[in-house]
Amino acid sequence: MTEKMIKENNTTDLFAAFDEVISLVRSAWAIALKDAGFVLTPLDTKILSILKAQPGIILHDLVTSMSKDKAQITRKIKDLEEKSFITRQKTANDQRSYQLFLTPQGKQAQAKTQLIKSKVYRQIFARLNTQEQADIVRLLNKCIEENR
């Protein structure tokens, strides 16, 4: 087998394994949220986490940071607002823009869903020792840095 063929096979194996891990995480995360009584999607929880980390972020910046469709995120924001997890406040500089904030209920939901997410990740990666987990983090960060 040539070096090119080996590299192609490794890349195919990498894609398949990475897709499978992503699928496992998404599925387990969605099931865990439902089992805990949350009517939230993983995307909803990601928005809550971003709002916790960046209180007052405007929609445009949220959409950019998530690399998602603006219409999709706008619908999610409206839904989270209807569930009383977030509030909007007009910005002082631009009356067309709104800052987004977690409500007390949103802060509580974000904290609880983060604990559930941590449990899901621990279960999925439980068979890896500490060094293997550190290696995966290091390698994924290398990919992220080289593709930004």
Overview of the molecule:
The protein is mainly alpha-helical and 148 residues long. The chain has a single domain, classed as Orthogonal Bundle (Arc Repressor Mutant, subunit A), CATH 1.10.10.10. The chain contains six helices and three strands. It has a three-stranded antiparallel beta sheet. Strand 2 and strand 3 form a beta hairpin. The longest helix is centred in the N-terminal third of the chain and has 33 residues, at 3-35. The protein is globular, with a radius of gyration of 19 Å. The mean pLDDT is 89.
Salient structural properties:
single chain; Arc Repressor Mutant, subunit A; 148 residues; mainly alpha
CATH fold label? Arc Repressor Mutant, subunit A
Main β sheet profile: 3 strands, antiparallel
Radius of gyration: 19 Å
Order of helices and strands: HHEHHEEHH
Give the C-level CATH assignment: Mainly Alpha
Layout of strands and helices, then pairs:
Blueprint: H1 3-35, H2 42-53, E1 57-58, H3 59-66, H4 70-82, E2 86-90, E3 98-102, H5 104-124, H6 130-146
Antiparallel strand pairs: 1-3, 2-3
Helix pairs in contact: 1-5, 2-5
In short:
With 148 residues, the chain is mainly α. It has a single domain (3-146), classed as Arc Repressor Mutant, subunit A, CATH 1.10.10.
